[in-house]
UniProtKB/TrEMBL annotation, chains A, B:
<feature type="binding site">
    <location>
        <position position="262"/>
    </location>
    <ligand>
        <name>substrate</name>
    </ligand>
</feature>
<keyword id="KW-0479">Metal-binding</keyword>
<keyword id="KW-0808">Transferase</keyword>
<protein>
    <recommendedName>
        <fullName>Thiamine-monophosphate kinase</fullName>
        <ecNumber>2.7.4.16</ecNumber>
    </recommendedName>
</protein>
<comment type="function">
    <text>Catalyzes the ATP-dependent phosphorylation of thiamine-monophosphate (TMP) to form thiamine-pyrophosphate (TPP), the active form of vitamin B1.</text>
</comment>
<feature type="binding site">
    <location>
        <position position="314"/>
    </location>
    <ligand>
        <name>substrate</name>
    </ligand>
</feature>
<dbReference type="Pfam" id="PF02769">
    <property type="entry name" value="AIRS_C"/>
</dbReference>
<keyword id="KW-0547">Nucleotide-binding</keyword>
<keyword id="KW-0067">ATP-binding</keyword>
<feature type="binding site">
    <location>
        <position position="47"/>
    </location>
    <ligand>
        <name>Mg(2+) 2</name>
    </ligand>
</feature>
<dbReference type="InterPro" id="IPR006283">
    <property type="entry name" value="ThiL-like"/>
</dbReference>
<comment type="similarity">
    <text>Belongs to the thiamine-monophosphate kinase family.</text>
</comment>
<dbReference type="GO" id="GO:0000287">
    <property type="term" value="F:magnesium ion binding"/>
</dbReference>
<feature type="binding site">
    <location>
        <position position="213"/>
    </location>
    <ligand>
        <name>ATP</name>
    </ligand>
</feature>
<feature type="binding site">
    <location>
        <position position="47"/>
    </location>
    <ligand>
        <name>Mg(2+) 1</name>
    </ligand>
</feature>
<dbReference type="InterPro" id="IPR036676">
    <property type="entry name" value="PurM-like_C_sf"/>
</dbReference>
<feature type="binding site">
    <location>
        <position position="75"/>
    </location>
    <ligand>
        <name>Mg(2+) 2</name>
    </ligand>
</feature>
Amino acid sequence: MGEFELIRNFFAAAPCAQGGEGVALGIGDDCALLDVPFGEQLAISTDTLVAGVHFADPCDPFLLGQRSLAVAASDLAAMGATPLAFTLALTLPTVDADWLEAYARGLNLMAQGCGLRLIGGDTTRGPLCLTLTVFGRVPNGQALTRSGAQPGDLLCVGGELGNGAGALPLVLNQLSAGPSIAEPLLAHYWSPQPQLALGQVLRGKATAALDISDGLLADCGHIAAASRVGLLIENDRLPISLALQEFLGDAGAQQAALSGGDDYVLAFTLPAVELPTLLADGWPIHVIGRVVEGRGVGLLDVDGQDITPTIRGYQHFGI
Amino acid sequence: MGEFELIRNFFAAAPCAQGGEGVALGIGDDCALLDVPFGEQLAISTDTLVAGVHFADPCDPFLLGQRSLAVAASDLAAMGATPLAFTLALTLPTVDADWLEAYARGLNLMAQGCGLRLIGGDTTRGPLCLTLTVFGRVPNGQALTRSGAQPGDLLCVGGELGNGAGALPLVLNQLSAGPSIAEPLLAHYWSPQPQLALGQVLRGKATAALDISDGLLADCGHIAAASRVGLLIENDRLPISLALQEFLGDAGAQQAALSGGDDYVLAFTLPAVELPTLLADGWPIHVIGRVVEGRGVGLLDVDGQDITPTIRGYQHFGI
């Protein structure tokens, strides 16, 4: 038995790979088989993380295991999909049992938290690189796309912004901070919590949605373009954590919230009539702006003045 | 717009990405959406190809485009699945428009030949690496797994063996050959033809199946283990191409057929009663042995003598 086959067996033995609802056949054959209930569609998303590009190398493999699945699962949340399963394509320079054990432990913890089962993949030798493909199910026609925002809708986000970008200098050891700042930021970076439940509750309510991975402005640009509308963001309504504000100051925190990536928080447009019930039910929804006729994304200050030009120039913005 | 977004747009413009039967939503949102007809299951397989490991670097990107999808689609053939769609996770060291144009052209040609549509993926910077995930559909309970072989069944393959392994020294420029030898071998290597139609016709007939990627002996070992049976292969019945025989001689060709990888030909077990009709219908089926009580894989010479020990020792064999 080759060492890469040993690895496959190692992952196959993980609790999350034992099949279950929706998984008709898991690891070990030429294909896995999924059951998709009548009246539902299968949602699919693929994310690649490259060592030295998307994460520091070396890094803690347990944390990497959590993060690699979380960022992929966040796309299911953005679609309003119910999590089902995932595949893992793992390219490794060497076979290091300790590394693998820790990586699989982090992966499995996130998989259990998200309700995702490992159903297959590939294991190859080469520069460290991870490609995860996640699968979810969603009732026909109820997926949350980016293209349905309507003028008059509210623009909302599902949680604090900028924490992922704020954590980056800590991850890269470029800056340091006390535990009251570092711990929540690093937790957000290494173990983002895909907003799967929020995504599902927004089905049939939100008119457009995505998860913020490239930064709020860039990603709102995607909704604006796909929906052929304009989005106005009110600068003073951005939810910013105390830790981020203490760490980067007001201006730095605001910049992280507007253009930092790695938030993995949902951004969505919502008819105002839907808001009261969602808030009453305790969903973490922050209104940060509104949908208007037009194109692109604008930023307003506390007096309603357009301050967009000062924050232009980020990649993706305004597409 | 970033250069990697340009690439995404480039692939999104490919003919194979325009949606169609089964694809409810293609490239451009957080997830793609697939429709799976009532009464059918979704078959999923993932393959990674790493530069310098699974293909020479540099190599012709057009040929790589064809090959990268073909080897993944072959797993759908092995399952008896009807091809539906695929995702591409492309990690590139630099953005080279000529390379991308040629790669996409080869990929699209194979996609059209296979009936597969590109529905999403990811594009990242890093050492050249490709992960393709393919999707097919198969009627509930009719997928061809590895685990149903029964003593008494015939052991069959869907075409000539060893051509992929025979081509390897030509691909790596370790050996040369005249065009009558080199062309068919290289064509098999760079543009393997996944046996998708054969896989589908074997539904409800074959008791076990896979595609030969690790070599005949190793892969028959997988069927034997999953089905808890023994497989006996008759050495003189291996279908070997004239080109391979002329290139490597009798012994070399036989070794390539038994233990060379990269065949992407189906191997399957079949109740004898099914054979005449399939042959009469013109399917390329070669009987190379039979299923017996027991465990593992044995090789018999023309006189029925067990010559297994002489070919032991290949990775995977005998698991």
